[in-house]
Amino acid sequence: MNKNRHVVIIGNGISGVTCARTLRKLDSDVRITLVSGESKYFFSRTALMYVYMGHMEFRHTQPYEDHFWDKNRIELKQAWVESVDFQAKKLVFESKETMPYDILVIATGSKPNKFGWPGQDLKGVQGLYSKQDLETMEEATQEGVTRAVIVGGGLIGIEMAEMLAYRQIPVTFLVREKGFWDNVLPREEAKLVGRHIREHHIDLRLETELKEILPDSQGRARAVVTSTGEEISCQFVGLTAGVSPQVDFLRNSELEINRGVKVDAFFQTNIPDVYSIGDCAEFDKAPAPDRKNIEQVWYTGRMHGETLAHNLCQTPVPYRPGVWFNSAKFLDIEYQTYGVVPPRAEDAQDFYWEHASGKICFRMRMDSEGKTLGVNVFGMRLSHGFFDQAIREKWTGQKVIAQLAEANFDPEFFAPHHISIQQLFLGEFGGDFRPAKKSFMQKLFGAKV
Amino acid sequence: MRGIEKIGLGLFLVGVVAFLVIPFLGSYSLSEEMVLAHTKDIHRDKMAELLAPMYAQEYGSSFSFLSAYREQFNPYNEGLKSQQLWDEVIWDDYTFPLAKAALQSPVRDSPWLFFGLSIGLAVLGGFLYNFRQYADEPTGVKNNGVFHSSMKNRGLLGMITGSLLILFYVVLYWFPAYLVNLVAMVDPISVFLSGNPSSQWFLYGLIYTLAILVMGVRMFRKYRGNRYQQLRTASVMFFQTAFAFLIPEILVLLNQPYFDFKNIWPLDYDFFYDYQISTFLSAGGVGMFMLIWGVLLIIIAVPLFTYFYGKRWYCSWVCGCGGLAETVGDPYRQLSDKSLKAWKFERWIVHSVLALAVVMTLLTIANYFSGFSLLGNVTNQLHSFYGFAIGSAFAGVVGTGFYPFMGNRVWCRFGCPLAAYLGIVQRFKSRFRITTNGGQCISCGNCSTYCEMGIDVRWYAQRGQNVVRASCVGCGVCASVCPRGVLKLENGPEQNRINELPIIIGNDSIKIKA
């Protein structure tokens, strides 16, 4: 192995940056360059919405101070890559400048999906993924927008709705499915989120799709037509029907690409010394039965990055994700999930508790023998470590619920919802444990359930 | 903005303007009786003689009155100094009591009217502005537009507010004679509580307490649905009103020493000063109790409570400085500097102040027990330096005046010697930590942005590490603003509290230490 080999990583999102940082941790000699056209310094993509809403300034989304990169000898190159010369092992930038590499890591992330809708490229029509998207959106919604339409009910869609609500722009939210995000969420959870969206005065239209976007004389969006034939006047259209790998600049090269860059379990592409990680990588074979071939969340990007860095420095191991976890926030309601809870339970049993407010709920999925497969929780926080262990060790549902007080990650003095959950579980499934008791301080000062 | 908020804001502004105008009202006429009544025995004759040309004159403003005073008084005193007749120099500053005595103004004649117009309207307006905030919105994080706000992001409004605060502190500490109208205005309240006329410190304590109460209401609204935030806000409101404001005044009414039972040395830096000790020792059982209580707080309560709950038990639940920072200062919490450089400065400065306070106190005590044979009045000079540089300039002018520029915990973070002491206990011997929830962090930065102590919380959260920091005051806002439920303030076993090389869970391929 060449001691001073040059690892070039295209993309400075969470995958690329984790890879670079971990490489440096494991090998002090390797030369590392992070390439990005989007922004010189790493920032947290998930925080773009907070910049729009004035919770933060852009600089706050940068997890490391500028001197961090120098100190760790990670070189930063701000430029857009036009193509890669895999034979000569070099990148060609838009400026026609080139950069040689010994090892190339493609971590270019995603781009918003556009499904060929008429008018999808008009002014005032966009997705929200990159820093540039944020800038365009800020400009497009500065003034003169009396209504916005968001197309596609996923996590970015709900963020966009919240952002526009901050600017007091009324939002119509077109969602193809019967319930909000119901390809992921079971019915009750989808309903809970739907109710909360409407509580925020967002005009949620379920089972409604976009037909076309109509232009005005200046080439700006002026209205959308929905699948029900209705024309909704609007000046801004958010396209948030998912994302797909951003690999167009690599197509028509010897690199094998399907939807994303094809990789094996070691992130190896069909070309030696070229790897791909994060949103843009597509596994030949899904890494686990409960995983997809393309993994598009923050946490998987981070794991890809650290696993590949390890493989580049030490004996390679295949990527093996552990118990699935994810989280999100729907306006004011936080969501966490651990393990596997698909919307429909086959050969499984569900325990579901919902608070009287209709804004807090807990679902536990168990197999036919009562072993815990996964949980969904809304409006309440649960411990990752606890459920990682419980699901890995296949605890019974009863054991999990009996110890739920330990798993509660809500701040001190919050209402002890785990007690109500335990009581309901005892009623429905029985069990030989007693519900937790409120502490003296909790009784005196704590919030009521 | 709703109607009631507009009315509230309007009333508040009227009150503030009235408060700023009141010092300029009325006129000043000095008489010999006043001079005799407000000067010490040893200065009485000389002062009466020096100020004689001012008698029966009417001065239209505090400026002309005080400049006339200086015209008469300064040449005499400076003359003594230049002749090095140190024993005859009049070191006492009589400007405040004489200006207050000489004041003739409508404010003095109808104090309640002017009190209502200024502080009263500001409090009422502030309350009306706050008490219905976010009523139409579901509970949740309320940080919309913080960085688009001129007030909260060092815009013009922030600059004006900061400048007014700084001006107020400078006048209060060093030129109180210009504030006698305001002080006279709150005389009836002071007389009611303690039986004594008001000083500038009573005025300050009253405003301070009312500000915490009004802005505490804002906290209740902002953190609706968040019991932790509401409880600790209620706690600081209670401790300020009862312990810092009312009880000391009532003690005076009962002929006992003025004493704040929750103020702890070395924040309460004059606790061991000779005159304080004399006061305690001359006040019988009550005085002795105060002395013992104060010492027990230092040697038992601080280590014990900090071991069990972290320094938050004091800094964000009890302390008066903390109380102001957490209520009035809350809109500015995001302005703290999170850089590594700021952290380095912080550690040097805050521990230097602690060292200075400790050395000064040890010298004072040694000097006291040696009957002042050890250092003579050198400790007095040390006291006046500390009082000026740390007690007034740092804690007051910078500590509060700089809220809109550097965030609401400048004093607590860089200056407070008690915070430094609590911090050392918290860092090395405590059950408190902020737990990170496995691998759920998305590095968004809300926690770091809203950390008033400038802790880069995200640095820890994103690598799955518990936050154990000397400076953390446990306000819990990082946990409140986290969109993914990653942070939790906890007291737990010391074992594994500090996980230096954490491994983020969720990846079974490899285990990489941070």
From TrEMBL, chain A:
Pfam families associated with the record: Pyr_redox_2
Cofactor(s) of this protein: FAD
FAD/NAD(P)-binding domain span: 6-299
Chain segments annotated as coiled-coil in the UniProt record: none
Keywords per UniProt: FAD, Flavoprotein
Entry's family note: Belongs to the FAD-dependent oxidoreductase family.
Protein name per UniProt: NAD(P)/FAD-dependent oxidoreductase
Native source organism of the sequence: Algoriphagus oliviformis
TrEMBL record, chain B:
Name used for this protein in its record: 4Fe-4S binding protein
Entry keyword set: 4Fe-4S, Electron transport, Iron, Iron-sulfur, Membrane, Metal-binding, Transmembrane, Transmembrane helix, Transport
Pfam families according to UniProt: Fer4_5, Fer4_9
Domain annotation 4Fe-4S ferredoxin-type: ranges: 432-460, 463-492
InterPro entries per the UniProt record, alphabetical: 4Fe4S_Fe-S-bd (IPR017896), 4Fe4S_Fe_S_CS (IPR017900), Electron_Trans/Redox (IPR051684)
Taxonomy of the source species: Bacteria, Pseudomonadati, Bacteroidota, Cytophagia, Cytophagales
Record-annotated membrane-spanning stretches: 7-26, 112-131, 156-175, 201-221, 233-255, 275-308, 348-370, 385-405
